[in-house]
Amino acid sequence: MYDFVRWIILFLLFAGLFAFWVYAKRQAAIRQGPAGATTGGFKVVQKRWIDQRTGVALIEANDKTYLLAYTVGGGVSWQPLDKDAPAPTTSPPVAAPATFPKI
């Protein structure tokens, strides 16, 4: 008798877990929208490690670009980047001509 009750409880447990999984997948599909539609998610453009514990990533989210710095321990810092900002010049800076005091 008790074995039968245990099997029923086990079956109900797995049926509940399966129903929850189906519900979660359905909700995720609804949130994602129709196929081919753009979502409000984010995209990792580029990712680099600075050293063994620190990395940086360039993230695009909601038509904005962010610079994300993170550490292995979980520390995160981010800064929005302006796409219209001028690119840095690649030529070396030119030193001003030296002026000497007149004696």
Notes on the protein architecture:
- The chain has 103 residues and is of the alpha+beta class.
- The protein folds into two domains: 1-32; 41-83.
- Helices cover 30% and strands 29% of the residues.
- A four-stranded antiparallel sheet has the order 1-2-3-4, with no helix packed on it.
- 0% of the residues are buried.
- The model has no long low-confidence stretch (mean pLDDT 83).
Taking all Cα atoms into account, the compactness measure Rg is 28 Å
Q: List the total number of helices.
A: 1
The backbone outline, from C-alpha atoms, is elongated
* Broad structural category: alpha+beta
Query: Share of helix among residues?
Result: 25-40%
Work out the number of β strands. Answer: 4
Stretches where pLDDT is under 50 for at least 5 consecutive residues are none
How many structural domains? Answer: 2
Report the span from N to C terminus. 113 Å
Major sheet strand order: 1-2-3-4
**Helix-strand topology string:** HEEEE
Largest sheet: 4 strands, antiparallel
Rounded mean pLDDT is: 83
User: β content, as a range?
Assistant: 25-35%
